[in-house]
User: What shape does this take?
Amino acid sequence: MELVVLAAVEVVLPVLALLLEHMGNVRLSERHHRHHDTYVVPVSFARGLVLAMAFMSVLGFVLGWLCAMLEFLPSPLPVFAFFDAFIVTCFAGWAILNRYKVSVFGSRLVITPFVGHDASVRFDDIDLLRWVGLRKGSGYRDLVIWARGRRVGRISGMVDVEQILMAMDRFDALPRVEGGIIS
Assistant: This one.
């Protein structure tokens, strides 16, 4: 019974992710619309996670089957459990990444974070923009937004931070380097 459940997880989650990725909206970044621009995690990154799940599912089935049929040293149970753990983790990451977006309107932006409630901030209310974390594949680090004396959101470096900064036009809120010291 345990093997059936583990095998079902190994099939259902990758197939579900593949179907949702295929049938869902394309999730392209929408730029230069009349009323807004929306920036999302690159589709190629999300699709890469789905393909990794599918590949590990097939590999897990082959190794599990070999362990069961050829009576290799390990039993198929830990093999299926290992690959299921990978697939469940990738599926959770994929679902969280697909939720993230930053929408820029004329005088404000709305951040839909990986987890939690949307954060909306007016450009005029921004006190400080601070770079944090490590550089992402886009070449940017994350950008934390402070408005009215409190932290209101974090823009991930995975999206097009440069275009978002251009739309906000609040370069005065970025720290300046003077004589090698950030002020």
Remarks:
- The mean pLDDT is 84.
- The chain has four helices and nine strands.
- Strands lie at 37-40, 101-104, 108-112, 119-122, 126-132, 142-147, 150-155, 177-178, 181-182.
- Residues 31 and 37 are 5 Å apart (CA to CA).
